[in-house]
Structure formats: C-alpha cells, structure tokens
Specification:
By secondary structure, the protein is of the alpha+beta class. The chain has five helices and 13 strands. Strands 1, 2, 3, 4, 5, 6, 7, 8, 9, 10, 11, 12 and 13 form a 13-stranded mixed sheet that branches. Strand 1 and strand 2 form a beta hairpin.
Length: about 260
C-alpha cells in the first residue's frame, strides 16, 4: 500500500491509499469473507447475523431490498445497516453504514468493516490530500467512522470488466467497487465517469462478530437495527447532510413493515 503524502490539517494527519484499501493490511483480505489464501468456515452465531433464519423479503420499495432486522438480519458485504432511534453512539446514531468488507483478524476472528454513508466533513478530498487532482478534488470528504489509521478510501460505481476504473471486484451485489484512485482521477477528467459516481471516506467503523450481534440484539419498543440493499447511487450520493439518508431509509423501512 503506497499512501499519498500526509497533510496536517486542523491537527488531523491524513493519507489516502493508492489502492483504496485503507482498512485491511496483509493480515486481512478485503470484501470477501476470507483470509489470505483460503476461505474461512461459514460464520454462524445464535442471532443468525450472517445466515438468517428467514429469507430476505422479495418485496421492494423502489430499488431497496429489506434483508431483515434485529437477530434475523442478514449482514454481508454490500448491505447497508440502518440504526434504530435508540442508538446513542456518536458515529452510529442516526446513521446508515455501508458494509464493504468482512474478513479475519490475526487471531482468525471475524471482523466487519463499514463506512457511515451520511456523515459529511467540512472539507473536500482535495483540501485534505492535494495529490487528489482534477475534477475529483472537489468531491466532499465523508467521515466513515472512528477506526483506522487516519487514511481514506474511495468507493465508486465505475468498476467491473466494462467499467473505466481499474479496481477490485464488486462489493457483494451492491454495484459498488473499492479503490483505483489513479484510474478514477483519469476517468473522471476524461469524462468516462461522473465525479458524483465516486465518494471518499475518512476512516471507517469496525466491529467484531460479537459486537455486531450485540448491536442487533438491542430492541426498544420494537425498534432495532435493520439490514437493507439500496441502489449504488444512494450510497455514493455526496449531497447528504448528517443523518439525511438515515431518515430516508427509516421511511422506507416503515413502508416495508406496514
């Protein structure tokens, strides 16, 4: 991983990984649930976060798919986790979290990593890292969470065999890809991809399997964490204010539950 030069801004030392993998080191593998060289056994726990006891609903509100709530939720790369009203963690309250990777730590424990989609900072990516140039430099930088080594990652919809951005495989079935910053800058400046198809995140959220299970087990007046699949343009929208997507998705969830 070759980082951009660090820039000190308001006391924050910031770097952007060229390959977009600001989360995993050589001890981790990105979005598939796997360790280097081999896939781990399937993840199970009594609350069925990774293997749901019930199938996800085929009913859709627009292009949003409901994947369960609480202990019946499905959690996999590419889903969006929507916080309940009673979540009071500073970063997780009124949040929508895009899960971009599930992997193993150095002790072979499962870890889940995601970014808060709708927590914008006051800065553009170009202000925080001057090595991001061209049209992408004006993209808003979002605060993905409080874990990480003060690095950023790029998510976009321009990957795939026919896409202009050279990047890793699709994250789940989300239509979203990670990394390829140099290719993304070139593609945006050439008009091969729109700038709003790219989104930058500073740091991320990380959970152990138990931490996530405990989160999803918490219920108050029937309100609990929910797992959804949503359109890639909703994940990559850089126009959100804090909690704005959360509010929109909560309305969709109410429609599902009618």
């Amino acid at each position: 991983m070759i980082p951009f030069p660090c820039v000190a801004l308001l006391g924050i030392f910031f770097s952007l990984a060229w390959d977009g993998v600001a989360a995993f080191t050589s001890r981790y593998l990105s979005h598939p649930s796997a360790s280097l060289g081999a896939r781990p056994p399937p993840c199970h726990h009594s609350g069925s976060l990774f293997t749901s006891r019930r199938m996800a609903s085929d009913e859709n509100v627009g292009r949003i798919r409901y994947l369960g709530s609480g202990e019946d939720a499905i959690v996999r790369p590419g889903v969006v986790l929507v916080a309940p009203n009673h979540e009071y963690d500073h970063f997780l309250m009124r949040s929508a979290v895009f899960v971009y990777a599930i992997g193993l730590d150095e002790n072979d424990g499962t870890i889940i990593r995601g970014v808060v989609i709708d927590h914008p900072t006051a800065f553009t990516i170009g202000e925080m890292s001057p090595d991001v140039m061209g049209s992408l430099a004006d993209n808003q930088l979002f605060r993905g969470g409080y874990d990480g080594s003060d690095t950023a990652m790029l998510l976009h919809s321009g990957g795939g065999s026919d896409g202009p951005v050279k990047s890793r495989e699709m994250i789940g079935v989300s239509g979203i890809y990670e990394g390829g910053i140099v290719s993304a800058m070139e593609s945006a400046d050439a008009g091969a991809i729109e700038s709003d198809a790219c989104k930058f995140f500073f740091n991320y959220m990380q959970f152990t399997e138990k931490e996530l299970a405990d989160m999803f087990a918490g219920t108050e007046d029937g309100d609990e964490w929910v797992s959804l699949e949503i359109p890639p343009e909703d994940v990559l929208d850089s126009g959100y204010e804090r909690g704005q997507l959360w509010s929109k998705l909560r309305n969709n969830i109410r429609e599902f539950r009618k």
